[in-house]
Each structure stands twice: as C-alpha cells, then as structure tokens.
Prior knowledge:
It comes from Petromyces alliaceus (Aspergillus alliaceus). InterPro entries: SUR7/Rim9-like_fungi, SUR7_domain. One of its GO terms (biological process) is fungal-type cell wall organization. This is Actin cortical patch SUR7/pH-response regulator PalI. By secondary structure, this protein is mainly α. It is built from eight helices and three strands. α1 runs antiparallel to α6 (about 100-130). The N and C termini lie far apart (about 60 Å).
Amino acid sequence: MINWSNILPTLTAFIAFILGILCLFAGTKTSLLLDSDVFTIYTTNIGNGTGMRDFYSIYVMSYCEGFLKAGKALTQDAGNNTSLSSLGWPSSITDDLRAFGATSKSMGAFYCIGIGLAGLVVLMRLWFVLIRGPRQTVVEVSSLMLSFMMFSIPSIIATVIALQFVSLINRHGKESGVTAGYGQQFLGMTWAAVGLLLVGGIVSLLTVLVDRGRSEDAVCDPMAEPKMVADDSDSVESKP
C-alpha cells in the first residue's frame, strides 16, 4: 500500500522544481516555452516601415541578462541612427521598463533559491529512503516551507506586473499604439509551483507531528509503578 504521507511532499517538491526551472529558463532558447513570457510589448503600429518586430517578449532570465539589450534590439531593428522617440515610442515606457529592472533581477534570485530548496528536499528524501530513515523530518518541512516562500515572492511580483505594470504600459503607449499583455501560462506555472509546495509542506509538517506524538505515547512513564508478575509457583498446590 502506498504511503502518500511520505511520498506526497517529495512529489510536490519535484514537480515544483521542474516548474521553477521552466519559469526561470523560459525563452532562453528559441525552442523553450516561448509562450511562457512574463509580459509582451506589441509594437505593430509603430513598427510598420521601420524594420521593428511586431512584438518583444520579456522573460525572467532574458531580463536578468540585461533588459537594456532588448532596448538596443528595438533601436537596432529601427536603425541605429533612428531614435525610438522619433518613431512615436513613448519615453515614459522606457522609464517604466528601467524601473522594472531591479524587480526582474530579484525574481530570478528568488526562483534560484526556491528551486535549490525544492531540489534539496528531493535529495534528502532519497537519502532517507536508502538509510530507512523517518517518514518526514523537520529539515524537510523547513525546506519545503522556505521554498514555498521563495516561489511566492516572484509569483506575487509577476501578478502585480500582470495587473499593474502591463496596464501602465498600455496607458502610456495608448496614443502611440504601443500595447502590452501578460503571460497567462507563466502565471499558471509559477502559482502551480507555489500551491504544490504549500500542500507538500503542510503534509510533511502533519506527518512529523503525528510521528512525534506516536513516539511520545510509546515511551513509558518513569513514575509509573511496575506491574507485578504473579509467581506460578505460588499457585501450585504442594502434594504430599
């Protein structure tokens, strides 16, 4: 019979580990989850006749490697001698993107820590299985909850971007026809990882508490009087 209280925390940590890697490295290669962008800027209206692309997608790692490179790409596509402002690109959007720089870098850092902790949980469980250790340990509980916190922070940031930052770009770029949209697939993956880690952490914590309670019940009370064992020889009648 499968002991889900032992397997479930490790399984949730493993799935969250995979989802975190996908969120972190999405868009770093042309064949890797191109639809999992944090948000996308659409420049169709100002890109016609200028050589600019129709859209520019922003990912966690690509931004962490330098979002200004994307700004340079916009300028390069339009021609190095042509400024973006002359094409109708709102300077306020450039300011918005610069303000987003530190936020995006912090997202990558939190994801790295959360992924590392989730991977640590999986490795610890494999070790405890080999040595026939306890079902769950305090270290596993702590790692799961810390990983949950590390995933929650960038997920909240991504949600704020979806609700506020994209709306800010749309408002500032309304007159020039520059629009933006957030990545629903990215939000789905990052919040799925958060939910899995929360469930795994709760199950792991309950398992530790239950096992500790059982071990305490099994310990004899040192103040209790020992039970007297009847001597069989007293119950045997002597025969002449």
